[in-house]
Write a structure and sequence with these properties.
Blueprint lengths: L1 H21 L3 E13 L7 E13 L3 H15 L1 H6 L4 E10 L2
Parallel strand pairs: 2-3
Antiparallel strand pairs: 1-2
């Protein structure tokens, strides 16, 4: 089950970098930390997943980062869309200025 989370984190981070680059944002990286809860009974699916994004770049716009996350979550990252069928998905993010 941990591999599912790791794959989802990689999928969504990749999406976010690509979306920001297409939007001409000076993004240099994206790290994602996921915390999840699972059901107590079999099949013990994920019931909650929280994504914490650390997006690195130069003068990134908060609105652009939030939009990239939403696009990944709702349209492009099939792994997170699949998780969303059984789990409540939440996220937050921070922008790290990269010199």
């Amino acid at each position: 089950m941990e591999m599912i989370l790791a794959g989802t984190g990689g999928c969504t981070a990749f999406d976010i970098v690509l979306i920001l680059k297409k939007g001409r944002q000076a993004v240099t990286g994206c790290d994602v930390t996921l915390k999840a809860e699972r059901a107590e009974n079999d099949p013990k699916v994920f019931t909650r997943v929280h994504f914490h994004y650390r997006v690195k770049g130069r003068q990134l716009k908060s609105e652009a980062v939030a939009r990239a996350i939403e696009l990944s979550k709702d349209k492009y990252c099939s792994a997170s869309i699949m998780l969303g069928k059984t789990a409540e998905i939440s996220y937050d993010f921070e922008i790290v200025e990269d010199n």
